[in-house]
Amino acid sequence: MTMEDAASSLKSAPKAADVRLTDVVAVHWSQDRQMVERARAAVDTLIADEGLNKEGRLRALAKLDHFHGGGIETTETLRKLMNIPAKPGLRGLDIGSGMGGPMRWFALQVPAHMDGVDVTPGLVSIAREISERIRMDKQCFHGAGDALRIPSEDGQYDFATMMAVSCNIPDRAGLYRSIHRVLRPGGVVGMLDIVKGPVEGLVLPVPWSRDGSETTSKLLTPRETIHEANNAELMFVTQQDVSPEVLAWFRNEQKELAQGRPVGFETVVPDWKDMVDSQVKNLAEQHIGFYCMVFSKPIDKDM
User: Fold this and answer.
1) How confident is the model over 145-168, as a mean pLDDT?
2) Which of 162, 246, 294, 299 sits between 20 and 30 A of 234, alpha carbons compared?
3) Contact predicate 124/96, CB 8 Å
4) In this model, does residue 254 exceed pLDDT 80?
C-alpha cells in the first residue's frame, strides 16, 4: 500500500463524545464567524508564488497553520526528538490538528500518511481546503472528533503528535488513555506541552483560554505530566525545554504585529496581539514553560 492510496483510519466522530469538553473548547476556537473566509484569503496570499516547491509552500503557510508557540521551528524540534524510524506505510495521528500545519509537515518529512482530528469544525474545514490546495489531500485526512474519544480503532498508528493541545484538556488521564489505545505497540507520541512554571498565576488572555477557567485550561508540571502518562502506560522517553526559543518567537510576534504584516495568526484570532503580550509575560516571569516530550507504548512481551 502506497501513501497515495492509503485510507484514513479515522471513523466518523462518535455521537457519545464528551459534550462538555467539546462544546466549550470548540466555542473558544470558533468565536469569529468570518474565520474560514479570512483564512482562505490568507492562504491565497501565502502561496501566491507558484515557484515554491512543496516544502516551500509548507514553510510559507506556517505563518497561518502552525498555530502554537515557536511555530514551525518547534514542530521540527519535536519531529527530530521523536526520532521516528523511516519505513514504508507509516501512519501518524495529529490530535487537536487545527489548520493542519504540523501534520502536513510530518507527512512530508517523515514521510507518513497522517490523520488529524479536531473538535472545531471551522478549523477542520480550513485544514481540508489547504491540503487540497497544495495537493496533500491523498496523504492527509482531516476529521472532526474529541481527543478523549479518538474516532479510530485500537492500535492504528505508529506515532501520534499533539502541538500545545493538552492545556485545553482537564482530563489528562483520559487523554493519555485515549492516545495509548490508538497507538500500535512500540508506537510513540510526541507532545509540545505548555507546562506549569515555578511561579503561580497566569496572565490572561492566553491562546488556549480567555478566562483561565478550569473547563478550558489545565497545566501540569513536566513531572506531573510524566506521572499521568505513565499511569496510562505511556512510558517516558525524552524531553527538551524549548521555553527560551518560544519566548524569543513570541517577542518576534510582538515586533511584527507592531510593524504590521499582511498575514499572521491574527487573521483567524482577532485578539492574538493581547494573547502574545500575555505569553511574553507568562514565559518571562516563569508562570509557564514549553516542553517537547516523547512517550512510547510498550511492546507486549507476549507478542
Assistant:
1) 95
2) 246
3) no
4) yes
Q: At residue 26, does pLDDT exceed 90? A: no
> Which single residue is written with the C-alpha cell 522517553?
237
Contact 241, 291 (CB under 8 A): yes
What's the Cα-to-Cα distance from 92 to each of 18, 103, 117, rounded to whole Å? 23, 8, 11
Q: Rounded to the nearest 5 degrees, what angle is found at the Cα of 136, between the Cα atoms of 40 and 5? A: 145
Express each pLDDT in 39-91 by its tens digit.
889 999 999 898 999 999 999 999 999 999 999 999 999 999 999 999 999 99
Neighbours of 41 (CB within 10 A): 13
All domains of the chain, ordered by start, with CATH? 26-296 (3.40.50.150)
8 Å CB contact between 128 and 65: no
Cell of 220: 501540569
Q: pTM for this structure?
A: 0.91
